[in-house]
Specification:
The complex is a heterodimer of chains A (about 425) and B (about 80).
Chain A (H helix, E strand, L loop, with lengths): L1 E4 L2 E4 L1 H18 L9 H24 L10 E3 L1 H8 L3 H13 L3 E6 L5 E5 L1 H4 L11 H5 L1 H7 L29 H8 L3 H8 L19 H7 L3 H14 L3 H18 L8 H14 L10 H24 L8 H4 L12 H32 L10 H13 L4 H28 L1
Antiparallel strand pairs in A: 1-2, 3-5, 4-5
Helix pairs in contact in A: 1-2, 2-4, 3-4, 12-13, 12-14, 14-16, 16-17, 16-18
Chain B lengths: L3 H6 L2 E7 L4 E5 L12 H15 L4 E8 L6 E6 L2 E2 L1
Antiparallel strand pairs in B: 1-2, 1-3, 3-4, 4-5
The chains are: A mainly alpha (about 425), B alpha+beta (about 80).
Chain lengths: ~425, ~80
Amino acid sequence: MKKTTNHKLHFDYGRVFQNTKSFIDLHNSRQTKLTQKLNANHRATAELIVRLYLKQLNKAAQLDQLDTKSLPGFNTYNESLAKCKGCTKRTIINHRERLVNARFIIKENHCGQGGVEIWLNPEVLGMAKLSTTCGDNVMKIGEVASLFYEKAKNFHHLVHEQQEQENNNSNVGKSVTTEKDHDQEYGVLPHRRDHKSGKATGTGHEQDKNTEENANPASKQQEQLPENQLKVEKQEQVAAGVGRIFLLSLIRQLWAYVRKVLYPDLIFSDPEECEILNLIWESVYGKLQWNASEKEWLNYQETAYSRINMVARWLARSPGHWIPKPHIYFHPNNERNGFKKTWQWYVKQETLKIEIRNQLLLQQAKAEWQQHGQNKEWFRQKTRLQLFRIQQKRLANFRDESLMQAYEQCLQRCLQLQNLKRKQSAHAQ
Amino acid sequence: MLSERMQREALSKCIVWFYDGNVRTFYSLDKTHKRAKPNQALGIRRLEKMLLETFKGQWETAIVYENKPHGNELAKFKKGARV
């Protein structure tokens, strides 16, 4: 962060490095593809660039006055960076490309023999402008959903963690698993459950090859439980977390809705429906792996419904719009025209909503300050501090940090304007 | 023509009544590759594609059943449309 001492700029290495780290972490958390993330090597290159750039800037600041709005770029050579890092020139070029894609580097100027000039993102240097939408909107919209969609292969830790080798096929130290445990582990639908339990290398769940029934008598008994016992089981599960039956019913409800809204003309047989339900379980509900509360799941269900409505509206908008059949549409690997893509639409829509709400709130606050300045309405009896407290309390209810930041900025502007007006009137007199 | 073993292992079959009076039975191919887990839905989709594309306009009725004795009816087609 910059500090002004004797009118000279000085960049604190620690703060800028922290900004760099948080910037890269945020970027990685938003990317789903491994090829778009920044790994430890890119991080090292970014830090090298930051370190050398700050050195250059601090030196320049001692010699000359620097304008914070138009800082000079970082002059460097690929070869010198490669030498510093101990890698090839090509690696540095590749890393720079990745950093440009991540918006860590905002501009590059190639000067031939004069090397390269690089401008870093002002957020990294601690000079970012504040907007009402900064922060992670995905997290604001729904935690359950954000967990599903930011799922990508994690990078290895720099330090290797010694882990005990687990043998899944071993029976040692394990009691024979009951079907309930098995189901909770996979969270599968009934159709899939049969296949899972029929794995060739399973523990105690070998399928009888002729009858295709489960060889484990305990699980067979479980399947034929009377309704009362099933209810008890459900209550137990609800007590432990959210019941599996409840979650599976959510999936069935979603499919029923999708069928009604998006595929009213198609007819499906039972095996086809089972397959589609399994695909929805995997792609839309993330295999029900997240241990969320019932309320959070219901919220997520609402978002899923609204996404389907968005698709229906999109389809109605033009005859050229189409969606593939459900087994393709809900396939977890379908990146091209799958249901997954609607998540981006949804985020965009919700972000826009939040932004509009914030702008309206700020407009209201601004109008109140203006009216307070003119001694109008009920503000007449309030002091400036009281008005500030009222507004702060009102805005704090939304629990939005970016809104509070924008409010502070707006407040500063309002107060500056008021001061200016007073000065002008005093000067005129 | 499928081998007898494949006919036996198929999860569904389709009986087609052609306009020329022929009646033929087709068996589903339920695997994406030799060692894959059989997927009945895939087999049904393939039979449907066969009916609606390969034998388009040549049959009057087609019914897909489970491939076992007294198997349930899974899908029914009449004059080029699923009913």
